[in-house]
Amino acid sequence: MKFTTTQTSVKSGRLSRKLDGRIDIKEYPHGCRVLQNAVVMPQGGARKVQGINLINDGANDPLQFMIDGSYNHFHKVEGDVYRISVHYAAPNMVVRLYDDTETLQLTGTILVGVAVTDPKLVEFTQFNERVYVTINSPNFDFIPIYYYKDPAGTLTSNGIADGTVKYLQTPYLGPNSDYNKRLKISGSGTQLELVDSAGTTLSAAVDSIANYVGVGEYIHVVGIVDVAGNKFIHSNYFRVSSVTATTAVCVSQFAQAGGATAYVPDGTYGEWYYPAWGINQGWPKTAVAFDGRLIYAGTRKKPCTVFGSAVGDPLLMSNKRLITSEPSNEGFTYTVGQDGGIINTDPFVFTLATKRDTEIRFMQATRNLIIGTDERIYINRNEGGIIGPQNISVVPNVTVSSNNLAITYDNNVVFAADGYTKLVEISYSDDNGSFVKKDISLLSDDLYEGTEIRQLSFDENNGLLVVTMENGLVHLVSLSRASDVLAYSTATIAGFEFKSVVYNPFTRICFASLYNAALTFQVNQQAYWDLSESVDPRDFITQTISWDKGFASDYWTYDIGAVGDVVYWYDENSDASGVARLGDFKEFTTPTTYTHLHIGYAQEMEVCLMPIEAGMQFGTAQMAIKRVDQIGVRVYNSLSFRFKELNSGYEEQVITTQDGVTPVSGQFVRTLSASSDREQIICVSNDRAEPFTLVSISMRGVSNDG
Description:
With about 700 residues, this protein is mainly β. It contains no helices and 53 strands.
């Protein structure tokens, strides 16, 4: 008998070939064998993505990647929007800032002599007017710095090792009481000797001060000074200029705010605090802004320790308020904090309680602080209050080995796991009041085979996760929990590999870095990519190059094309457009003269449904389909589409409209030129420079049932 069946959505997106024939799973009736250059909408249909517009910014460096987002404090005037591009120009990494007209406004070196060529290792965290840079790799020990644009418009950075106590950003560990070690001040405050409780200088065989501090670092010494019978506390920092086995030679000592004196007499002893970050301890690998703090984590010697700044002051990582009580038999006692106690807005340090040595890979801020390690995910439970030294409560949540790539959307965290070969989501469940884990790459796992995740970015306006892969592909993952959409689509640019894609929430445009080894004039190519919904046909030209000759001409070239290629062009001043074929010199002529043209290829979208079990003689969940004769394609705001059964050629369907220009919506039924009685895959595509949105596909044919 005759039948009609309709696939009402593609909300499950592109499914793995491992799922062919799995009609028993709920995703199968809404899945695709192929979904390319499309975005799955919350309503369940798929719309064509816009094309790539190439930008030649003159930066042909080996590495290019963008920072996720745009930063308010880089305003030229109120309302201007900047994007930030990072380039590796050996041996330095440089940052370039562009305004909203893609004009280079500012450039400067941010990482000197740091040979990082992988964007997933470099992290940027914004806190108020500064951007903080960390490198998340066991192979690098990099001092975290911050940078900003000063009033003169100069890109300025200030780091820990700039030689002044003003920018001291490290927390301190201690007091160091192992073997009753103390420090004795000598040399008019220029030397610190490692001594025992009796004041005897320790030998290198017992210990070495070089195990704790390095040149350029600071030691914090707290002790009691006795001046004419009057005892008071000293709290001083000593900057180390050289280190021997038992002695640190210091260039100067700096009194901490609230200290009684800026100079401590020779022979004075003190408990000492050595820096938690530095040459010996290593530097933090990751950072996040949370609860008004800047929180760092993951040093070389303390890979599972978290360091939080004071609330509202990201530069204050150690406590400045030191208040003494009466000296004790050990020399002194002291408490830290305002009015003699710790307050919850103070800086803090805590270490995860783990069963084995573990390493913090990422931190993300949702309603909770989410900490990913190479062992499991940890979540803080400070409900109803800020995280701080008085109430730190961090507990293990789910067991999964994470990597350092992670993004946050809504109250969820998506991160790379298992060696950058899968994507896992941690989301808060109102049903059980806890976070739950989901492998969101499971049903499309073949996209991750033989390659790794390179970069993650999230377009919150479209609920779109942009996943850049090491093999040069990009996956567009639609995430709409309210409408039960979790859908993969792949994006490809002929001749190019994606190296980096990030979303700018202010311009609502993705910026991409593309690579083409065949191009001699521009190997690494900047581009912008508008993923928003649009019906302007010129937005669907890809690999667009803008030609500004400065004089009227009808002769044009498209250097990245090939002889015989069909290209599209348009002039934004007159809104004229056309199609041309490239000649022997990659040239073409226009019917009239123009001074400025945009030239590129048509973006192509393709959708192929999951296999249909045609040729079946016995009943199945899909009926016993004998053959499929017709397909009905329902579209929205479209002008044309192509359709085929996978084993036949494409046939063109031009939608007849009243004016031939305005896109229309509706269902269009076509008969397949060659009916098939075997497994069938129905495909629909659009390869013109025009918008296309697929709503549903109906199949009509004959079954053996009944």
